[in-house]
Amino acid sequence: MLPLPKPPQEKKGFGLYVQRDLISDEAKKNSQYTSKIKAPIYEPKNKKPNVIELVNESKSKQLIKEISATSLPEDEKRFLFRAAFRHNVFNFRLIADYYAHSSSEMQLLMERSGLVIIDFNKAVENGYIKFSEEIAKLYVKEHGKTPE
Q1: Alpha helix locations (H) across the chain?
Q2: Which residues neighbour 136 within 8 Å (Cβ) at sequence distance 6 or greater?
Q3: Alpha-carbon distance 61 to 52, whole Å?
Q4: Mean pLDDT value of segment 87-105
Q5: How many C-beta atoms lie closer than 10 Å to residue 58's C-beta?
Q6: Cα-flanking dihedrals φ and ψ of residue 53, to 5°?
Q7: CA–centroid distance for 91 within its chain
Q8: Nearest-CA neighbor of 133 among 38, 45, 7?
Q9: Angle, CA of 6, 3 and 135, to the nearest 5°
Q10: Which of the listed ranges 7-16, 75-84, 88-97 does the model predict with the highest average pLDDT?
Q11: Whose CA is closest to 40, among 63, 17, 66, 65?
Q12: How far is Cα 79 from Cα 86, in angstroms, rounded to an integer?
């Protein structure tokens, strides 16, 4: 693995850390794409939402109903049941509200599940920052040097 420079961070809003650009000014000028990425900064509301509001399960429930009605072998049904959960839609705005009003135990598990990312170092520890490492590797491959 390539050694990566420690990313500069700015603390913003509700404990979110924003990594500054890895792309040089020259590369920005020559690109048709923007490198301006703004991390969402969210201010929690005063009210804790009901936990059932945090996820829409309508499609996964429909698929489970359809799978249950088949004559497929049980092992195939179990596989399809697990796959059906991919269709759950999470409401991350409400999840952030829920997090802000939850116990420390619940907050820790929400962080470990990737439902919220509060701390850059914890995000690395929990494996949610691998994508930025891949981007840095691609940058080195293309430009022959580590990002500035």
Answers
A1: 25-29, 58-68, 74-84, 92-100, 104-112, 120-125, 130-143
A2: 2, 4, 22, 146, 147
A3: 14
A4: 94
A5: 11
A6: -80, -10
A7: 12
A8: 7
A9: 80
A10: 75-84
A11: 17
A12: 12
Mean pLDDT along residues 124-129: 60
pLDDT of residue 144: 79
* DSSP-derived pairing of the beta strands 9-12 and 89-90: unpaired
Pairing of strands 9-12, 16-19: antiparallel
Give the span between the Cα atoms of 84 and 73, in whole angstroms.
17
Query: Which region among 21-25, 133-137, 138-142 has the lowest average model confidence (pLDDT)?
Result: 21-25
Cβ atoms of residues 53 and 91 within 8 Å: yes
Is the pLDDT higher at 104 or at 8? 104
Distance of CA 137 to the CA centre of its chain: 20
Take residue 66 and report the two structure tokens written for it. 């359809």
Model pTM score: 0.56
AA letter at 117: I
Q: Tell me what pLDDT residue 14 has.
A: 44
Query: Could you tell me the two tokens for 124?
Result: 């690395």
